[in-house]
């Protein structure tokens, strides 16, 4: 039999002694072997979902990874309880990808499976069931047995039931067959307890009863009957105007949206009367949450240098699987992507475009949907579970051959990828921090492309050093664009010395004279301004002027951030909140001052300096709602906002005609951070946010406020000299053994008892030192933040040689040694977290 991917999914098995290795969504380092019952031996294969018993009580959904005839040596194999589908839901390439990810990122394949599969595909004892919204309990239309009725009648009275509750109702520990049967009959839905329930989007419509469509005389008599009832007559006429039932009777089957008939003054009660009297019938349809979009065929062509870059990328793909497209900000990389995407789709292959986060997704999606319309799916975390399920199903069924998504979209069920594009490939938000797998989407995408024998294109104005190093060494192809699209000019940079202005008494509310003047000039010309500060909140902390006391988080070793809007202190690590104190808790003084500057305070200061300006703020606090980003960007694009203050969200890919001034309030804070990548990140962030200025025919101005304007990096940013900066930094990295010359692995040990955390970390270091590979082990040391959520933190760092098998051997032994350490009584409660290629 062939599966959805056109592959042979299962083969008739003659032997009755069959076993299946099953991947389970649990953090355990091996697969589990189960016996395949006779009745499903002809159906089972790789990628099928099965229900199995795990331990004494748990029932879990697993994915078959292998079918064979070798029984397990260590235990008696339990039988598979049931096969959930008639086709595989995962293909062999996906399982290979999961295996690679588990091995490379030092986690378990069950953790990868848990991250990859949508909740609707995982049935377990923790799952919940609900009535399917389309199921009619009064007229089911299909046979329902007595035990199934018990579940359905219980669900009629309650919104949901756990699988455990179903077992209790039926007085049986084996309810999976009944749940599977109800699922197949579309009577129930299954979802994870912590996930939102899947409910299709339902639209209520009305249509004229067939008696009036098939018989013109009946319709004429109807008009005679309702003569003298003008409101009912108005409803009927409005319907017939939009649905000419005699000229196009097929339109009546679709009908009209019910609420559209009563819009514009028609009486809702008159419509209800006509439905009650059998003139109209009301019906419901399930519709997609993603509206169909018209395709814009009248797009401008590529410029000469873009055409050259496109052809260069194609030539590079002939010999290199991965190509780095290094194009300055405003060079028009998106248009090159569009041409490549269209060509790959026309060849019959699928395309995935990765974007770093939702802020960029919102702006880019509109541009891409105007080109690809409903062929394109969008997949990111701000979408509801309902929307994500629809995209997953759309890829599975071939509806979407092109998907735009954030890092989680690499897990979608692609079967014939031809191209993966990673835009802004340098972005740290491609890194998954918690939970495992702690993968980097750029690196995972390159491996996914290799598995599909597809091409990968990495795009950036400021490439990650690892990517540029690979291009420099010939591992990746390389294409450089050094021109801006159209008439756009590169912005003019200005360095504003904070200390000099402070000495001359020219610094006002954290703004230098130069930045204030440029903002005022832009406002006078009715142009727009972006102000960048990579710190949200009103101020980093509150301090007592008398004794220096600073409010601390009760659960973490950090100070609380002051948020003026909610009049509260907030921990950005664990979410703890507290009231703003009226007096010092140490000495009782009421002289408390806010120290430092966050986006909230900058917004307030700007309103004082420029009272006539319309100012808005874009950070995590103002964009928590689902469409928060979109509304802000739409307002800004429409010219309803003069000055937009933001965190790193505003540095990524935004393209607005009227932005001519970009201000960076505190460049030093980006540069002076205890991280070997701080220089690289400063260059990237400042260059990216500067690229938002002057993107059409107007000259843009970028004002960098700093206390040390003579820093070499600022000169390199102003000249746009990435190569010089790279060569300077890369020499330092090589000298002191940092990536890309070594492989970095960060190992974090956490425990509620500081002494246990420290003891575990020290013992782990001793074990790691015994691994016979070329390496450097640093630590253990307290974490940069020594306590988070009441857990004490110690860190070790491993630097591994990149040649030979050093990485593979070290990772294998590292996993074994952490499992061993966790099995020891003294260290059992300690949590050991392995992060390969930490951001």
From TrEMBL:
Cofactor: Zn(2+)
Cofactor remark from the record: Binds 2 zinc ions per subunit.
Entry binding sites for Zn(2+) 1: 544, 547, 584, 587
Chain ranges of the Helicase ATP-binding domain: 314-481
InterPro entries registered for this protein in UniProt: DEAD/DEAH_box_helicase_dom, Helicase_ATP-bd, Helicase_C-like, P-loop_NTPase, PriA, PriA_3primeBD, PriA_3primeBD_sf, PriA_C
Catalytic reactions of this protein: Couples ATP hydrolysis with the unwinding of duplex DNA by translocating in the 3'-5' direction; ATP + H2O = ADP + phosphate + H(+)
Keyword Calcium appears in the UniProt entry: no
PROSITE patterns, per the entry: HELICASE_ATP_BIND_1 (PS51192), HELICASE_CTER (PS51194)
Keywords, in A-Z order: ATP-binding, DNA replication, DNA-binding, Helicase, Hydrolase, Isomerase, Metal-binding, Nucleotide-binding, Primosome, Zinc
Superkingdom per UniProt: Bacteria
Enzyme Commission no: 5.6.2.4
Short name of any one Pfam family annotated for the protein: Zn_ribbon_PriA
Span of domain Helicase C-terminal: 568-738
Annotated binding of Zn(2+) 2, by residue: 553, 556, 571, 574
Enzyme class: isomerase
Similarity-based family: Belongs to the helicase family. PriA subfamily.
HAMAP family: PriA
Functional summary from the UniProt entry: Initiates the restart of stalled replication forks, which reloads the replicative helicase on sites other than the origin of replication. Recognizes and binds to abandoned replication forks and remodels them to uncover a helicase loading site. Promotes assembly of the primosome at these replication forks.
Subunit structure: Component of the replication restart primosome.
Name of the protein this chain belongs to: Replication restart protein PriA
Native source organism of the sequence: Negadavirga shengliensis
């Amino acid at each position: 039999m062939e599966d959805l991917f056109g592959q042979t999914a299962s083969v008739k098995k003659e032997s009755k002694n069959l076993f299946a290795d099953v991947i389970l969504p649990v953090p355990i380092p091996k697969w589990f072997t189960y016996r395949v019952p006779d009745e499903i031996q002809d159906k089972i294969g790789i990628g099928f979902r099965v229900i199995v018993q795990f331990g004494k009580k748990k029932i879990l959904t697993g994915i078959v990874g292998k079918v064979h005839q070798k029984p397990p040596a260590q235990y008696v194999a339990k039988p598979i309880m049931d096969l959930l589908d008639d086709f595989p839901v995962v293909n062999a390439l996906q399982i290979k990808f999961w295996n690679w990810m588990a091995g490379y990122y030092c986690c378990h394949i069950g953790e990868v499976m848990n991250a990859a599969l949508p909740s609707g595909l995982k049935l377990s004892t923790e799952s919940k069931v609900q009535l399917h919204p389309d199921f009619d309990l009064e007229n089911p239309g299909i046979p329902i047995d007595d035990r199934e009725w018990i579940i359905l009648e219980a669900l009629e009275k309650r919104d949901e039931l756990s699988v455990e509750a179903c077992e209790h109702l039926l007085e049986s520990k084996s309810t999976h067959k009944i749940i599977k049967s109800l699922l197949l009959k579309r009577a129930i839905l299954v979802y994870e307890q912590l996930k939102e329930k899947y409910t299709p989007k339902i639209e209520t419509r009305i249509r004229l009863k067939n008696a009036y469509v098939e018989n013109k005389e009946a319709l004429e008599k109807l008009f005679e009957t309702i003569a003298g009832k003008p409101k009912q007559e108005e409803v009927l006429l409005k319907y017939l105007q939009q649905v000419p039932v005699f000229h196009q009777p097929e339109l009546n089957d679709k009908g009209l949206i019910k609420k559209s008939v009563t819009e514009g003054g028609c009486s809702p009660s008159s419509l209800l009367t006509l439905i009650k009297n059998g003139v109209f019938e009301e019906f419901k349809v399930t519709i997609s949450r993603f509206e169909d979009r018209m395709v814009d065929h009248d797009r401008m062509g590529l410029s000469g240098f873009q055409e050259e870059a496109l052809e260069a990328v194609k030539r590079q793909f002939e010999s290199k699987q991965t190509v780095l497209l290094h194009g300055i900000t405003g060079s028009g990389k998106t248009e090159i992507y569009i041409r490549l995407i269209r060509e790959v789709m026309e060849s019959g292959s699928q395309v995935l475009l990765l974007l770093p986060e939702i802020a960029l997704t919102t702006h880019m999606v509109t541009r891409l949907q105007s080109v690809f319309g409903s062929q394109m799916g969008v997949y990111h975390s701000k979408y509801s579970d309902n929307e994500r399920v629809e995209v997953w199903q759309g890829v599975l069924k071939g509806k979407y051959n092109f998907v735009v998504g954030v890092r989680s979209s690499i897990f979608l069920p692609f079967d014939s990828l031809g191209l993966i594009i990673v835009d802004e490939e340098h972005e740290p938000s491609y890194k998954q921090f918690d939970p495992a797998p702690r993968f980097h989407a750029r690196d995972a995408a390159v491996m996914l492309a290799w598995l599909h024998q597809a091409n990968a294109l990495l795009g950036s104005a400021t490439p990650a050093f690892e990517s540029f190093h690979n291009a420099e060494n010939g591992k990746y192809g390389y294409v450089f664009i050094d021109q801006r699209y159209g008439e756009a000019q590169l912005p003019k940079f200005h360095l504003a010395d904070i200390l000099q202005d402070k000495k001359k008494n020219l610094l006002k509310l954290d703004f230098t004279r130069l930045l204030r003047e440029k903002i005022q000039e832009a406002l006078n010309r009715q142009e727009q301004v972006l102000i960048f500060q990579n710190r949200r909140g009103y101020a980093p902390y509150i301090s007592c002027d008398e004794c220096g006391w600073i409010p601390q988080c009760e659960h973490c070793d950090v100070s609380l951030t002051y948020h003026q809007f909610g009049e509260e202190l907030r921990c950005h690590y664990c979410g703890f909140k507290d009231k703003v104190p009226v007096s010092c808790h140490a000495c009782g003084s009421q002289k408390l001052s806010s120290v430092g500057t966050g986006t909230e305070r900058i917004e307030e200061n700007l309103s004082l300096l420029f009272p006539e300006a319309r100012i808005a703020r874009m950070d995590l606090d103002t964009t928590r709602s689902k469409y928060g980003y979109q509304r802000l960007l739409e307002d800004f694009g429409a010219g309803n906002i003069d000055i937009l203050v933001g965190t790193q969200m505003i540095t990524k890919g935004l393209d607005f005609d009227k932005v001519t001034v970009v201000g960076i309030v505190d460049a030093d804070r980006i540069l002076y951070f205890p991280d070997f990548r701080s220089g690289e990140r400063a260059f990237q962030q400042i260059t990216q946010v500067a690229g938002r200025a002057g993107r059409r025919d107007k000259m843009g101005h970028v004002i960098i406020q700093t206390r040390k304007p003579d820093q070499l990096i600022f000169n390199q940013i102003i000249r746009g000299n990435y190569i010089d900066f790279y060569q300077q930094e890369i020499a330092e990295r090589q000298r002191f053994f940092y990536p890309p010359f070594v492989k970095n692995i960060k190992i974090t040990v956490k425990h509620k008892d500081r002494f246990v955390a420290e003891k575990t970390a020290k013992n782990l270091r001793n074990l790691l030192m015994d691994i016979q590979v070329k390496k450097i082990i640093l630590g253990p040391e307290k974490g940069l933040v020594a306590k988070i959520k009441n857990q004490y933190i110690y860190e070790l760092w491993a630097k591994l040689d990149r040649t030979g098998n050093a990485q593979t051997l070290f990772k294998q032994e590292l996993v074994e040694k952490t499992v061993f350490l966790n099995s020891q009584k003294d260290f059992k409660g300690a949590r050991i977290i392995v992060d390969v290629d930490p951001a």
